[in-house]
Amino acid sequence: MHQKNIVIIGSSGHGKVVADILSLMPQYKVAGFIDGFKEKGTVCTGGLTVLGAEQDLPAIMQNLNVCGGIVAIGDNWVRSQVVAKILAIAPSFEFINAVHPSAVISASATIGTGNMISANAVINAYSNIGHHCIINSAACIEHDNQMDDYASVAPRVVTGGNVAIGTFTAVSIGAIVKHGIRIGEHSLIGAGALVLKNVDAFSTWYGVPARKMAERKAGEKYL
Question: Domain 4-96 belongs to what architecture?
Fold first, then answer.
């Protein structure tokens, strides 16, 4: 099998998980990490090193025959900013999906690019996942869901059927979302929440049942 040389942008905790997933995908060979916050040559998980920062990508792609990779940054807003920076610096960069072999994905589901789908995650029939999303360990996205670009669901999140999760929205660990619920963009669902009502855009909800607790701004930190 011909392997594609790729890089992982971001070498912190989320990057470690992505590196582990990619080590189980024989079609890819990880050349190293891109991380502007660490010195070039820093040894990271699995013995992979930092090759440089985002601005070094054109040279790295040429010198190491790298075709693309994935942005492994947990914060949805920051991830989007890095993706935009990469597209401006290296327009030919190919964003790939990191999909753990134990994930179960329906043949009728559609998935964009740049996504991480972690161990034991489930994406059920006719669900649509956008670009640069995170579906974490043992999360369950049920049938006919819509997950927009740069959204994320944490470990053991469960959604019912026909749920919509807006752009940049984060659903925290262990939350449960009732069938048919619409969660607006740039919103945050707290850990362990039980979401029984539609969620406004730009808002924070948590509790059992979940209630609106605060307004949010685009890019507001949550990790």
Answer: 3-Layer(aba) Sandwich (3.40)
At residue 144, does pLDDT exceed 90? yes
Domain chopping of the chain, boundaries:
4-96, 99-214
pLDDT band, residue 107 (cuts 50/70/90): very high
pLDDT digits (tens, 9 = 90+) for 65-81: 999 999 999 999 999 99
Selecting among 2, 100, 132, 143, the annotated active-site residue is 143
Residue 12 assigned to a binding site: yes
Is 137 annotated as contributing to ligand binding? Answer: no
Q: Can you give the pLDDT at residue 1?
A: 67
Task: Determine the Cα–Cα distance for residues 5 and 17; give it in Å rounded to an integer.
Answer: 18
* pLDDT tens per residue across span 46-55: 899 999 999 9
Q: What is the pLDDT of residue 223?
A: 77
Q: Is there a binding annotation on residue 10?
A: no
Q: State yes or no: 173 annotated in a binding site.
A: yes
Topology, domain 99-214: UDP N-Acetylglucosamine Acyltransferase; domain 1 (2.160.10)
Helical pair 57-64 and 76-89, crossing angle rounded to 10 deg:
70
Q: DSSP H helical segments within the chain, as ranges?
A: 13-22, 57-64, 76-89
DSSP helix/strand/coil, 85: helix
Nearest to 9 by CA among 100, 107, 112, 81: 81
Q: Is 143 a catalytic residue?
A: yes
